Amino acid sequence: MAFTHLHVHTEYSLLDGAARIDRLVSRAAELGMDSIAITDHGAMFGVVDFYRAAKKAGIKPIIGCEVYTAARTRFDKDSEKDKFSGHLVLLAETDEGYRNLIKIVSRGYTEGFYYRPRIDNDILRKYSKGIIATSACLAGRVQQALLNDDYETAKKEALEYQDIFGKGNFFLELQDQGLPEEKKVNQLLIQLSRETGIEMIAANDVHYVNQEDAEFHDVLLCIQTGAYVADKDRMRFENDQFYLKSEKEMRRIFAEVPEAIDNTHKIAQRCNMEFDFDHLHLPEFVPPEPYDNRTYLRMLCEEGCIQRYGEITPEL
Length: 316
Hints:
Blueprint: H1 21-30, E1 35-41, H2 47-56, E2 60-69, E3 86-92, H3 95-110, E4 118-119, H4 121-126, E5 131-134, H5 141-147, H6 151-165, E6 170-175, H7 180-196, E7 200-203, H8 214-225, H9 247-253, H10 258-270, H11 293-309
Helix pairs in contact: 5-6
């Protein structure tokens, strides 16, 4: 196969992804795919389950995340200026890249959480090594600028991401789920690619496994937003095209830019991080002198008893 899905939401994109990992991997195997990514929204809770399932099926797992990017910095939390965030797909190319990816995602929760776990370019620069990035969906910063008819800002954003991750490590992501906005943006992304030399990839924004699963995904969105299926004015996906498409389908959709299809598999071949399940990775605690672990623990317990009870009685 010469196509790899690099933008995939599993059940761990909570109340947004309806692609259960076992069915997702099974379907990818049916389609003859030799690799597939996991890129859940703002979280990596499913990566171990996904890794095990993919390995068992003989498919190469690519570990990633679709992170939320802050409108300004991750520390800004103004209800008018910072409520809405962008999207960016990050893929672990190496073991170091995986460690950097979990640091990025964790900082989104511990430092940047405001409606969503958000990160900013300062964090990306600090932990960019070993990571491949793509511009994500219509919510990506590059695409948002293009939708707002601001081509120069889109170009500036793309070049900044290329500077952060390094040449050859940032890609412009084309998507076509039949939305009119995508038609407009894709032509501009192709133009931007030719002007800047930033390569493209083709992706389908996978939120469920099979096309007929769109109905169940719609119910899931209703649960997320507290709405009813019958409600007219509610959040909904516009069609049933957000499923795991075959390479044949993807090549037909992106016939104008076959290199964007081929680049997905080139990225998959570059991503070679591995989980080690054969060793325990426990932190080593070194007590202060003159204690060893046993005497230090006893000292802490004695201090705690005195703080709580005033003295250490035989009963204590």
